[in-house]
Amino acid sequence: MSDALNLKAYDLWKTYGDEAVVQGISFSLAPGEIVGLLGPNGAGKTTTVGMLFGTVIPTKGFVQFGPWQLPGQGQLARAQMGIVTQEDNLDPDFTVFKNLTHFAHHYRITGAAARQRAGELLALVNLEHRAEAQVDELSGGMKRKLVLARALLNRPKIVFLDEPTTGLDPDARQDFWRLVQHLKASGCGILLTTHYMDEAQRLCDRLLLLQQGKVIDEGTPTDLVARVIGREVAEIEGVEAQILQDLAARYETWYRAFGSGHLISLPDRDPEVVWGAIAAHHPSRLLRRPANLEDVFLRLTGSVLE
Amino acid sequence: MKLITATPWGVYSVWWRHFQVYRSTWLVNCLPPVSEPVVYLLAFGYGLSPLIGEVDYLGQMIPYARFLAPGMIAIGVLFQSFFEGAYSSFIRLNFQKTWQALLTAPLSYTDVFLGDWVWAATKGSIAGTITGLVAVLANLYDLSSLVLSLPLIVLGSLLFGAFGLLVAGAVNKVDQVNVPIFLVIIPMFTLCGTYFPRDTLPPLLAKFAAFLPLASLVDLLRWPLGLPPWWPLLLLWLIGWMVMMARLAALRIYPRLFS
Question: CA of B136, closest CA in chain A: separation in Å?
């Protein structure tokens, strides 16, 4: 059964007037896998997620989730989906506990079964002590966890997390990541949109890098970094750009001006030669660090994630 | 807009959610439909009855308070269903994002729309029935007549609930709900034969008032006092208004949820 509930997006397009917000996105998501859509604001991540669960109608293309095709069968497909939207749409008319029991009613989980499931989920997200609180009394992190708990009422086979940790403090983000990893371990397929590089790198098995509605590259975080940048990057200030450009050209590495300084990737084979050559120019600031997804994005798009 | 199949459970589940909110503050929610007709009946019934005495309705003289009572029932229906459809649905749609949250569950747009609509109609029906009971206690409407009038109360509530939803889907700011209130609701509840027979109005104004759906509802609710010979047309007129309002409301709200 779980194998049948793969999600596949086929050539999704969405245009508003003359503007193409999503352009030909195709990918698949298997049970127990976390796929990330990584891109800056306005890259088309939320529009893509909307097409996956049926509130955005594709201009072209479709989504197949198990036996159901979206957008036409969104209602049936959502019975097996958990959806954490970017906006807070918890019910301010109910307590924390009733937000869960009353929402469970839409899945035909009622009475004692709803109360039991709500209790389990509040324990899972560490909110059992706030069960009788009003939603307005919760912190931002608690609200996000409650939205996640609500999305899990039906024991979904797949969960969409649209920018789930935006605006959360570091502790709350760590807490949320723990829950995501728990879901993955339980066999749930997860689609995560984020513009946080560390979140994508830490959680995702596979990434689709989005820019202006297009997938510009994809792969595992480690492969993407290794393939596009290499193992290490040097951050430099106080050295002429021309010197670094010449170095990059000679050793076939990547160079880019960045802020008030420069970035240059160190070749995987014999990085010490380039590092030594840079150091010989006595830069005012010199930092050697592992390459990351931010560098990947910078190289592929020329812009930073924000 | 694609027609998406509604399920009885889906519609009921959305209605049930609204009912749970209502139930949590039921005492406050029951106050307006009880207090409003009592105040109106006291003010107009006792206040104006000595001045007016009887009114000529369909060729017979009727005590003013008995003439007034069906009008009060219609106003209870109008206000409660319209305001639930307009203000409360607008808030659920634009501020609380309740519609958007419901659409992450296995509910279709039609489920959510019908659930909201039926809930608005439920509030109108509760208000109309409570007003009717007050009129029964005041000996201004028979209990058996009230029971037979319940389908009319439900129909009126569906119509004005749909009108409220149309407004919720059409306006961009909550203050703009005041526009149809001043342009439609107030003229309707004052001119449509609620407080006085429409034939006292100038002919053109009387025709305009008769065109508005509340006039048909009031005329039909006044059936224990007599019915005009063309009353089946009034019923069809109300059903026609209801279907049109519901269709327009569904078309206006859909693009706010699906892009």
Answer: 35
Domain total of chain B: 1
Structural domains in chain A, sorted by start: 3-224 (3.40.50.300), 232-289 (3.30.70.260)
Could you tell me if residue B2 is inside a domain? no
Distance (Å, whole) CA A139 – CA A14: 35
Contacts of B26 (CB under 8 A, 6+ apart): none
Does B98 sit within 8 Å of A55, measured CB to CB? no
CB contact under 8 A, A106 and B106: yes
In a domain, B131, yes or no: yes
Q: Which of B26, B88, B104 to mutate to test the interface with A (most CBs of A within 10 A)?
A: B104
A13 touches chain B (CB under 8 A): no
| Residue B117 predicted with pLDDT over 70 | yes
CB contact, 8 Å: A89 with chain B? Answer: yes
Domain assignment present for B145: yes
Give per-residue pLDDT as tens, B31-68.
877 788 778 877 887 888 888 889 999 999 999 999 99
Q: A217 in helix, strand or coil?
A: strand
One-letter amino acid of A48? T
Q: What is the ipTM of this complex?
A: 0.89
CA distances to A265, B64, B149 from B137, rounded to whole Å, are 88, 16, 16
Which chain A residues touch B98 with a CB distance below 8 Å?
Answer: 89, 91
Q: Domain of residue B142: give its range.
A: 28-257
pLDDT beyond 80 at A240: yes
| Integer Rg of chain B from CA | 19
Measure in Å the smallest separation between the Cα of B179 and chain A Cα atoms.
Answer: 28
Residue A9's pLDDT band, with cuts at 50, 70 and 90, is very high
